[in-house]
Amino acid sequence: MFAPVKPYAALYVSLWETVRFAAHSRPVGVGEPFEASDLASILNKGSCFEKTPAFNSQAVFMVRFRLRLLWYTALLTILVMCCFVPRNNERRKAALMIVDEMCQEYRNGRFSGSYCEKICSSEDLNVFGHSMLNKAVVEIEVADQWYLLKSAKSRFDQFDLVPAFVSVSDFEHLLARQIERQVSVPYSEAIEKARSLWSTETFSLADRRSVWALASQEEYLNFRLFNFTGLFPNVIGTCGHMYAVPIVRRYISRWPFLTSASADKFVLTLRILQYSHAEPLHWCDFSSLNVGTSDDPQSPYLILDADLLFTDSALTSLLAKIPCQRDLDCHFFDCKAACNRTVGFCSRRLNSNIQVVCERFVSWWYKLFAGPRDRLVDLCLDGGFPNVANYVRLPNL
């Protein structure tokens, strides 16, 4: 097995190739040896090129071009090593700090979770990168299995803590109200969903604080409460304010090469968003980075970032609270509304999930070469699904 070539070794190889090129490019006698000092003569347009001026000028240009390219490559390599290697080390240190603090809080009894023991007691735990764009994401490996630990905030004490005097019944009421606002379901159904978020018979203060920190995160609630749609990664377990999900391949690995099979998966995904719940679901962050894919043609794409996923009534309520003076003020990420200048607030959403997908993922060349029965192109041309009354919604299991 060959050992990998180090960056500086590659530079030496390129330099040697440059010297060889110079040696074989000049009009010297057959068998005449090439000395290293001749390289300076080449660059200075020395006497070794005097016999054929046109050829000499071209050779000098090529040698100088290759040396300049070699210099820029070396400089770029140094910049990459100076910038990215320390940054990766900093991200790994940040990830280790998050996991260490989480496990310390768990050992101190401040919170609980179904995955705390597996993560904090494992001798095979490996912690890798950390991302903190719109949330804390830590990549870990436990017993040869890879997961992402996610949370809206990196530390547990950044969430509102449930006071010790709040009883279990009062806590369930608060949790149900939170779910009622997020999912837009009746209070009686919200109570049942609230109880499904925790499977233990006891409900200690550490349990309540953990559940409340998780329920304060829109993505976690969407992952858990809309799991029946098949649009989200499964939450494998939790530990305090963090929840573990499997690592899913992102759609960006295929972008922009849309195929008929992937187009059908988009149609299925859009149909589920439209009809799976009592209200249509609006996703305001449709990008190739946030879409997960699988090889199963019967499954939809996965929504990897669900912070900006709302029911129809929840999004309408949110937009109605945004003050505006022009329509541009009502562009909430991918969800675009119009400004009601009479009241000075935004109205309902004007565009749709379908329009966003057609703008982001369906290129003009795909429309040009797509078959006459391509469902996604037809959907883009029609602008929407048929009347909802013609479809049976999925049960909220």
UniProtKB/TrEMBL annotation:
It is found in: Endoplasmic reticulum membrane. Its main location: endoplasmic reticulum. InterPro entries: FAM69_kinase_dom, FAM69_N. It is a single-pass type II membrane protein. PANTHER family: DIVERGENT PROTEIN KINASE DOMAIN 1C (PTHR21093:SF2), DIVERGENT PROTEIN KINASE DOMAIN 1C-RELATED (PTHR21093). Keywords: Disulfide bond, Endoplasmic reticulum, Membrane, Signal-anchor, Transmembrane, Transmembrane helix. This is FAM69 protein-kinase domain-containing protein. The keyword Disulfide bond applies. It comes from Trichuris muris (Mouse whipworm). Belongs to the DIPK family. One of its GO terms (cellular component) is endoplasmic reticulum membrane. The lineage of its organism: Eukaryota, Metazoa, Ecdysozoa, Nematoda, Enoplea. Residues 211-367 form the FAM69 protein-kinase domain.
